[in-house]
Design a protein that fits this description.
Elements (H helix, E strand, L loop, with lengths): L1 H14 L8 H9 L4 E4 L8 H9 L3 E5 L3 H14 L6 E4 L5 H12 L5 E4 L1 H4 L2 H8 L3 E6 L19 H8 L4 E5 L4 H11 L5 E4 L7 E7 L4 H11 L4 E5 L3 H13 L4 E4 L5 H12 L5 E4 L12 E6 L6 H8 L9 E7 L1 H10 L5 H19 L4 H8 L13 H4 L4 E3 L1 H13 L6 H9 L4 H5 L16 H13 L3 E3 L7 E3 L1 H8 L5 E3 L5 H4 L12 H18 L3 H4 L2 H10 L4 H4 L7 H22 L17 H11 L4 H7 L4 H13 L7 H7 L2 H13 L5 H7 L6 H16 L1
Parallel strand pairs: 1-6, 1-7, 2-4, 2-5, 3-4, 5-6, 8-13, 9-11, 9-12, 10-11, 12-13
Antiparallel strand pairs: 14-17, 15-16
């Protein structure tokens, strides 16, 4: 009791809390007794205190290994704030000067510093290893420990080197902490850190205040996001995107629509990242658009919404990122936008990686896709993924529970599925079992001679999405389990074998089919809102094209005309908010179209939609300026793509956006080097005579076997010269 009262007195003295939260006290006592400790505690559960308080109370200095410089600075500042001594905590990383590092070492040797935060890269430097050998270390704390595992959502190879370095520096207790880890990742962490004997503490993953929702990602997603933010003025939110390019674009669009937003990604200068982070915490900005680099360790309790613009690479990543909402126990809405196209894009990014890494990546993606497409309670699925059971049938706080789908009796389907798993010797994953049930004679099935099984094709008349639902629900109900070592491989449990012998009612709701929404994602999927106006705009475009002796699409693309039927621009400034219309194009062709639309609105007594006009961003972003300047200097396009972190196709996207919006560029230096003159002339003449600039039509119409990117390059030259 004395030790307990001492701990509680220290908690009150240093941190101002009267009582510990959850298992914090038991974790601290275990560590102070010199035992290895493993802590699995969701975001907002109070992980940091589990190593900060014992570090203050124990002899020596605790080494805290942390992956992000921003996180270190944030935590060191927080510790200094609660102490009278500025040198109680320090960090060593690449951002410090040699003089600063020497001062840190002086404070440590003097015994003043109780916590030293280091990045894994800094820990492995020879001079740091030699220094740490000379001091008394109380314990090692490995924060964000999931980074050790290839199955974790943020794998970092340098984390694998931590144990050998600890052995070199000197043995001391290890505490590993993470907010997200499946059974597979937990096993990986303990094995790689050499702490299989660790006392394990696992808190519940349920965050009852978070509302989970998945929406189809369509051409209107930007508009949905802007509308949501406008309906919740002053609320803090984070929007996660997978690429830096998307982050910058979306942040610019939000700013153009009078939303206090900023971009955050690893490609920005560290000072700018730090300033952006501080502005968000101080509420100078409401919304951060970020890659996953943002948020680890950020102590902002009142984030009211977290959106995923792109599908996350894993459910662990998704859970941790959504966990940054509502950390104060208040409202937290988690909205993910999902389309199959993003899934295919992520799979394509894996090509070229080692086969084992590709397999892991695809399996993690499969789990995320299953979560997005499932009609089962989102909370139940998330908690099951982390090895926790949620007993309620309806959580009342996710889109699937608030809008439940019709359920169907599926006991016969489950029996077929369980038999198929057993017939294939419990060696395969969900997709393969569905192939067996549906009778798909693919190469793998034929290689294993499984087309000869009695179960092959036994469920051919059942849709894939229903089979996925049956197998997902079977896991939640305990009839099927996934093997920990060979993750993703399905095993039939004892309960599953009993079910085969004596089936009972098994109700499932069919998964959502997001294929229905993919067509909306096509470029130029803007619907024509006003057919009569659209016809008039087409006629005017034809007239203007004849006047300027250019094909009609040179004046404005169809997508731009379609947008005009929704937004009714009547000034040149408003015309520049139309997709594909820059300043140059608006000035060259815009007046006649604005005059026509203005007359039309007056004649028809149309009230123009000024309330939710989503302003697009003029093509003056830093990246576009960089690209234009690089082309002016005649730098190789491959080099331009690389220096801007783009694939070549993505660079062509940027170049097309630049020339279609009215800016002239000259890529002749590149074309002359790469392409034959006759080839350029042939493709150029095609576009001069064609009524459409559609790529597929061009590929099918131009004689000769030209690659898509060749045609796109010449089309860029043509648009630049003819339209601008």
């Amino acid at each position: 009791m004395e030790k307990q009262s001492t701990l509680q007195a220290s908690l009150k003295y240093y941190f101002g809390f009267d009582t510990f939260k959850g298992e914090q006290e038991a974790i601290i006592r275990t560590l102070m007794e010199g035992k290895n400790t493993f802590v699995l505690m969701p975001t907002g559960g109070g992980k940091s205190l589990c190593y900060q308080l014992p570090a203050i109370l124990m002899d020596g200095t605790a080494i805290v290994i942390s992956p992000l410089i921003a996180l270190m600075k944030n935590q060191v500042d927080a510790i200094k704030y609660i102490s009278e001594e500025d040198n109680i905590a320090h960090f060593i990383n690449s951002s410090l000067s040699k003089a600063s590092i020497e001062q840190v070492k002086t404070d440590i040797v003097s015994g003043k510093t109780k916590l030293l935060y280091v990045a894994p890269e800094s820990l492995t430097k020879e001079e740091n290893v030699e220094f740490l050998k000379s001091i008394k270390i109380s314990f090692y704390a490995i924060d964000e420990a999931h980074c050790i595992s290839e199955w974790g959502h943020d794998f970092r190879p340098e984390y694998r080197r931590i144990r050998p370095i600890i052995n070199e520096i000197g043995d001391a207790p290890v505490i590993a902490l993470t907010a997200t880890a499946t059974d597979k990742v937990r096993t990986d962490i303990k094995k790689n850190l050499g702490i299989q004997d660790a006392v394990e503490f696992k808190s519940s993953f349920n965050r009852p205040n978070l509302y989970y929702e998945v929406r189809p990602k369509t051409k209107d997603t930007n508009k949905e996001i802007i509308k949501y933010i406008k309906q919740h003025p002053g609320k803090s939110g984070i929007i996660y995107c997978l690429s830096r390019k998307r982050v910058e674009e979306l942040a610019n669009i939000l700013q153009a629509n009078d939303i206090k937003a900023a971009a955050y990604h690893a490609g920005m200068e560290s000072v700018m990242r730090s300033d952006t982070q501080d502005a968000f915490i101080k509420e100078d900005i409401d919304v951060i658009v970020a890659t996953i680099a943002f948020g680890m360790g950020i102590d902002k309790p009142d984030v009211r919404f977290v959106m995923h613009y792109d599908i996350p690479k894993s459910l662990e990543g998704y859970y941790q990122e959504t966990g940054r909402a509502g950390r104060d126990g208040g409202e937290g809405r988690c909205i993910a936008f999902y389309t199959h196209k993003d899934l295919h894009k992520l799979e394509k990014f894996m090509e070229g990686k080692p086969v084992a890494e590709q397999d892991i990546g695809r399996q993690l993606l499969r789990e995320t896709a299953a979560y997005c497409e499932s009609s089962i309670c989102r909370r139940k699925m998330l908690l099951h993924y982390f090895g926790e059971t949620y007993d309620k049938d309806n959580c009342g706080h996710c889109d699937n529970c608030m809008n439940p789908k019709n359920r169907v009796e599926a006991k016969d389907y489950l029996v077929l599925a369980l038999k198929a798993i057993l017939a294939t010797k419990e060696n395969f994953k969900i997709d393969y079992i569905v192939d067996i049930l549906r009778g798909n004679e693919n190469e793998t099935v034929l290689a294993h001679k499984h087309e000869r099984l009695e179960e092959f094709g036994s469920g051919a008349d059942v849709e894939v999405c229903l089979w996925n639902a049956v197998l997902s629900q079977a896991q939640l109900s305990g009839y099927v389990a996934k093997e920990v070592e060979n993750y993703g491989i399905l095993k039939v449990t004892k309960e599953g074998k009993k079910f085969i012998k004596k089936p009972t009612s098994f109700m499932v709701a069919e998964d959502s089919d997001f294929d229905d929404f993919d067509d909306d994602m096509e470029e130029g999927g803007q619907a024509v809102a006003d057919e009569e106006l659209y016809s008039m705009l087409l006629a005017l475009r034809k007239s203007e094209a004849r006047k300027h002796d250019v094909p009609p699409y040179i004046v404005f693309q169809d997508t731009s005309l379609e947008a005009m039927t929704t937004l009714y621009p009547v000034t040149l400034e408003e015309m520049q908010t139309i997709p594909g219309v820059g300043v140059g194009k608006a000035r060259r062709y815009g007046k006649a179209f604005c005059d026509l639309i203005k007359r039309y609105c007056e004649d028809k007594n149309i009230t123009r939609p000024t309330d939710m006009r989503v302003r697009t961003v003029a093509n003056k972003s830093k990246m576009k300026v960089n690209i234009i300047q690089a082309i002016d200097r005649q730098i190789d396009l491959e080099e331009i793509a690389k220096s801007n972190g783009l694939g070549f196709d993505e660079l062509l996207d940027e170049l097309e956006a630049i020339v279609y919006s009215g800016t002239k560029i000259n890529i002749d230096y590149f074309l002359d080097e790469e392409l034959d003159e006759d080839c350029i002339d042939e493709i150029y003449d095609y576009f001069r005579q064609s009524d459409t600039d559609d790529l597929d039509t061009a590929v099918n119409s131009i004689e000769g076997d030209y690659e898509d990117e060749v045609i796109r390059l010449v089309r860029i030259k043509f648009i630049s010269e003819m339209a601008n």
